[in-house]
Amino acid sequence: MGGVRKTSAADTTEAGAKHHGPHGPSDTPRSPISLPDVVRCPRCRELKARDGFYPDRSKASGFKSLCKECDKAKARRYYEQSKAAA
Fold it and tell me: I need a labelling partner for 3 at 20 to 30 A (CA). Which of 15, 76, 79, 85 fits?
């Protein structure tokens, strides 16, 4: 279990050769996702500008799905319900 790593023929490459995974070379820059300027909030169903949504780095788009107003209302309801339960 020491620090020695076993190698196989698949691990070795020729000098200077880069490993290419199933999706191409790993050093290829990713192209940015083109986002629409206007997005529909699934809760209020309104079309709003992208700046009407909070950022969320866990999402592919980089923004929350609910608009700022709906997200605030959701947080307010959660706060009121948790305050009443305590």
Answer: 15
**Are 57 and 48 within 8 A, CB to CB?**
no
Query: Please, are residues 65 and 58 in contact by the beta-carbon 8 Å criterion?
Result: no
Q: 15-73 pLDDT, tens per residue?
A: 555 555 566 555 666 666 677 889 999 999 999 999 999 999 999 999 999 999 999 99
pLDDT tens digits for 13-28? 555 555 555 665 556 6
Domains, the chain, in order of start with CATH, read 36-85 (3.30.60)
* Two tokens, residue 26: 């790993």
What is the chain's percent helix, strand, coil content, to nearest 5?
A: 25, 20, 55
* CB atoms closer than 10 angstroms to residue 7: 8
